[in-house]
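It is worth pausing here to work through a concrete case rather than discussing structure prediction in the abstract. The textbook approach is simple: state the sequence, then state the predicted structure, then interpret. We follow exactly that order.
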Amino acid sequence: MSNRKLGAVMFLPAILYVLAVVGVPFVLAFIYSVGDVKIASVGYHFVGLENFRSVLQSPTFRRSLYDSVVFTVGTQIIVLVGSTILALALKEHFRGRGLVRFLILLPWVAPVSLGAIGWKWILDSLYSVINWVLIAVHLVRPFEEPMWLGEPSLAMMSVIGVESWRLLPFSTVILLAGLTAIPRDIPEAAAVDGAGFWRTMFQITIPMMLPIVNVAVLFGIIFTFTDMTVVYILTRGGPYDTTQVLPSLAFFTGVLGGDLAEGAAISIFLVPLLMAVAYLMLRVAHRSEVA
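Step two, the predicted structure:
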């Protein structure tokens, strides 16, 4: 067998897996989105772009799109800042560094559903540990503690915080790999020339890490924009749809609401958005590599 045929045979299981897990559901979602399909309906009627027109005219969809952007951008800002600090700290040698790395990776290794359920208890309006601490240190009065999942602004802050907690280890590992790939002689030469920590950070470390930072942000945006687990477990999109994101809206509309066609249209709407983001991020990464 030639090398070309051997390579094709080795790639075949991966291609079949992607087609089965991604390709078939995507094609089925597209077929549903241009038809009149509901749970337990009989037959298929082509309606063209009517479902997309109905989705775009829905105030709930526009609100969910706005919430998705806020949810994604807010999470990525926190994750990028936090993972950069952690990567810089974990790069240095200190006693117990292996244990600290293990503890930081736990949120990513543990099932997200278990972590989100734990956070739901932590943020509960009656049994919140955070509120108990705030009352104990006299920062808030009893019976006046914040309702983390019951007020719109606090609920959005809560889901952003939990999602950031979940994605922080992944981004930290990526940035730590980028930091360790920087030749040690470059920062040492800068230190000899009199460059301080901040000058070395912003003029040497960050520019050299920019391609790997773009990769971390790209994966973070895709993971966050398509995730509904945290929102579903913590708030179910409430209060008043103020934390409803597009994936959860598609689930509630298509599965729980029974309107498979409109739910599929919402899901398909995510594809061009993520493709545009991926294209822009890869262009930025390519330009930084060329520079």
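Step three, interpretation. Residues 60-245+269-290 form a domain with the MetI-like fold fold (CATH 1.10.3720.10). The chain has a mean pLDDT of 84.
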